[in-house]
């Protein structure tokens, strides 16, 4: 198929949804802004160039302009998203329905992994499922909106406890329930696992809530860096052995970060 316009004089320009050809410079600016992540909030010019693949001169020119207009902030040789962007984001996320952000991400995560994707939040000393995209496999571990479990069991509970120390102290202040032979019931052991989750940024559990079921969870934060909930992939251990869970860590964390960014959130300092 020809890539020339109707006159045959040159390449046809791509058009956006509005029918207008997109401005090339906006695409380059988007690439620069996308180079910053919650895990890499500050970058040097060289790191931005390496991440985007744009010419060094282009990066220098655009970053200088972005700093001048508040899109980026600069301290010595480090550059980060500008504080003014948080002001704009606050207006964009005001009254934003969390589930409207979460549900599309759950479906994408389900389609990528083939397993059930859920979102949990804390309710007193329980974790409750507030959204789910069910696997299409016939063999599944049933999950539904409203399903609750003790916050001390499973990967989502571990994530919730890791970023909610007050709740962790409360839950660990009494005897821990045992749902399976693999449930962690030793409070000192669970404290160490919570610390490990906080360091690693995710949690993997196998058979702690239900025999033969695995879970992989990562945190989602709001604009105050407070925990919103835990994004989870779960399924039969037959399809999700611990090795497979480790393979999906990056995918899960990226999707959790996608929700955090859509909510105007940020990771705790």
From TrEMBL:
Pfam families: HTH_IclR, IclR_C
Residue span(s) of domain IclR-ED: 84-265
Keywords of this entry: DNA-binding, Transcription, Transcription regulation
Domain HTH iclR-type intervals: 23-83
InterPro entries attached to this UniProt entry: GAF-like_dom_sf (IPR029016), HTH_MetabolicPath_Reg (IPR050707), Tscrpt_reg_IclR_C (IPR014757), Tscrpt_reg_IclR_N (IPR005471), WH-like_DNA-bd_sf (IPR036388), WH_DNA-bd_sf (IPR036390)
Domain of life per record: Bacteria
Transmembrane regions: none
Name recorded for this polypeptide: IclR family transcriptional regulator
Record organism: Nocardiopsis sediminis
């Amino acid at each position: 198929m020809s890539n020339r316009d109707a006159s045959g004089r040159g390449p046809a320009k791509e058009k956006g949804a509005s029918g207008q050809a997109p401005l090339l410079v906006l695409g380059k600016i988007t690439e620069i802004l996308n180079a910053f992540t919650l895990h890499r909030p500050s970058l040097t010019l060289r790191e931005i160039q390496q991440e985007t693949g744009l010419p060094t001169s282009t990066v220098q020119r655009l970053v200088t302009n972005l700093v001048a207009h508040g899109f980026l902030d600069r301290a010595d040789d480090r550059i980060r998203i500008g504080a003014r962007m948080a002001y704009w984001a606050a207006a964009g996320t005001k009254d934003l329905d969390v589930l409207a952000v979460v549900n599309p991400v759950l479906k994408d995560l389900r389609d990528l992994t083939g397993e059930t994707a859920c979102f949990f939040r804390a309710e007193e000393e329980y974790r409750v499922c507030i959204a789910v995209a069910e696997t299409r496999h016939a063999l599944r571990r049933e999950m539904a909106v409203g399903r609750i479990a003790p916050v001390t069991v499973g990967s989502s509970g571990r994530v919730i406890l890791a970023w909610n120390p007050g709740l962790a102290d409360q839950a660990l202040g009494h005897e821990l329930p045992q749902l399976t032979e693999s449930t962690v019931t030793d409070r000192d052991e669970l404290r160490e696992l919570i610390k490990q989750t906080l360091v690693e940024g995710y949690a993997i559990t196998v058979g702690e809530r239900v025999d033969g079921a695995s879970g992989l969870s990562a945190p989602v934060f709001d604009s105050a860096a407070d925990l919103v909930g835990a994004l989870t992939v779960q399924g039969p251990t037959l399809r999700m052995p611990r090795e497979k869970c480790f393979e999906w860590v990056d995918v899960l964390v990226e999707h959790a970060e996608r929700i955090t960014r859509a909510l105007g959130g940020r990771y705790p300092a």
